[in-house]
Design a protein that fits this description.
binds adenosine-5'-diphosphate; binds magnesium ion; DNA_Partitioning_ATPase; Sporulation initiation inhibitor protein Soj; P-loop_NTPase
């Protein structure tokens, strides 16, 4: 049975997509079969792992709104061992359309049942909001990985995120847990990084990953080539740290 992890933080630009794609690819390199689920209308995970818009017949919107079987939507990515449920701009209206549908919070969970056993990990890249798409992701997930950008006000908004997690636990998914908290875009040259690190440690304790993702320009270049960092520049610092994160995640799962 695939273990489902949502990558969430309602702030944009904190590294959700970068982590979804690169953690997924590094886990696949460790022999894990991975399904990436793009639930952001921006489709950054989709394009970032090499899916051309012209090759997308149906996407996550069709799964959530039209109940298209998820197996009809899955595409292989540029990284062996990792498939994707793509997203396109079509998804931008879904929050509103879902409001009026039956079982609006459990649609992704229901859809994933079909392919649950085909993967070791299913990673859901969430949009930068706490709306129905993120609720669907939390309801479908075993756990949540929270990327936190190393910057001023890093913790701002996290109480709303934790509140949403509590609500989903209460109403839809009692066993939902926090997988871990990941510091991203860390800049070792400033004191700020160390301060944010201390603050996040104080708040989340041992749920913070030992692996810290530094700023690495190669990580920001890789998506425009449609490649995961380990394929774009396997010797980069970015490739090294995401491989390390994958090992930490596997260890936490006894693998
Ligand atoms: P989110 O999905 O949370 O909005 P992204 O993963 O898309 O965030 O990251 C936001 C931007 O920052 C992207 O342009 C991405 O390429 C870049 N980025 C993410 N992580 C790093 C990093 N560790 N070093 C440098 N650039 C990064
Ligand atoms: Mg994103």
């Amino acid at each position: 049975m695939g273990y489902v992890i949502a990558l969430a933080n309602q702030k944009g630009g904190v590294g959700k997509t970068t982590t979804s794609v690169n953690l997924g690819a590094c886990l696949a390199n460790q022999g894990q079969k991975i399904l990436l689920v793009d639930t952001d209308a921006q489709g950054n995970a989709t394009s970032g792992i090499g899916i051309q818009k012209a090759n997308i017949q149906k996407d996550i919107y069709d799964v959530l709104v039209n109940e298209t079987p998820i197996s009809e939507v899955i595409l292989p990515t540029n990284h062996p061992g990792m498939d994707i449920v793509p997203a396109t701009i079509q998804l931008s209206g879904a929050e509103i359309e879902l409001t009026n549908l039956m079982a609006r919070e459990t649609r992704l969970k229901d859809a994933l049942q079909e392919v649950h056993d085909d993967y070791d990990f299913i990673l859901i890249d969430c949009p930068p909001s706490l709306g129905l798409l993120t609720i669907n992701a939390f309801t479908a997930s075993d756990s949540i990985l929270i990327p936190v950008q190393s910057e001023y006000y890093a913790l701002e908004g996290l109480s709303q995120l934790l509140n949403t997690i509590k609500l989903v636990q209460k109403h839809f998914n009692r066993s939902l847990r926090i997988e871990g908290v990941l510091l991203t875009m860390f800049d070792a040259r400033t004191n700020l990084g160390a301060q944010v690190n201390a603050e996040v440690q104080k708040y989340f304790g041992d749920r913070v990953y030992k692996t810290i993702i530094p700023r690495n320009v190669r990580l920001s270049e890789a998506p425009s080539h449609g490649l995961a960092i380990i394929d774009y520049d396997p010797k980069s610092r970015g490739a090294e740290v995401y491989s390390q994160l994958a090992e930490e995640v596997l260890e936490a799962h006894g693998k």
